[in-house]
Amino acid sequence: MTDNKHHIIAIKTYLMVFGLLLLLTVLTVLASRVDFGSFNIFIALLIASFKSLLVLLFFMHLYYDNKINLVFILGSVLFLALFIGFTMLDVTKRTDFYQIEGDIVKPNAHIYDENNKVSSDH
What we know:
- The protein is built from three helices and no strands.
- With 122 residues, the protein is an all-alpha fold.
- It has one domain (11-107).
- The radius of gyration is 27 Å and the shape is elongated.
- The N and C termini lie far apart (89 Å).
């Protein structure tokens, strides 16, 4: 037989988590009004990750569930964070690569001379 235990969470805990979620939402709005440069997205994702962790732990009862479920969910979130992180690295460094490629091309190269153009007459 399976041993399914139902855990009842006190309303005080729900209200505290709800209040913390509201506080973090206000913090997100305040952080969006300050220009931290490219660090803004990191702050927003960090706050959103903490909010999602609170929802997973308390509203979805993972805090009281079998710990292997928590490991799987947190592992999935970790891999998602890695994928988003690699994508952010690609997007933020892309202009550097384009600048390097642009520097290799020499605008005064011999190939661009008007006299060296091949005529289309055969």
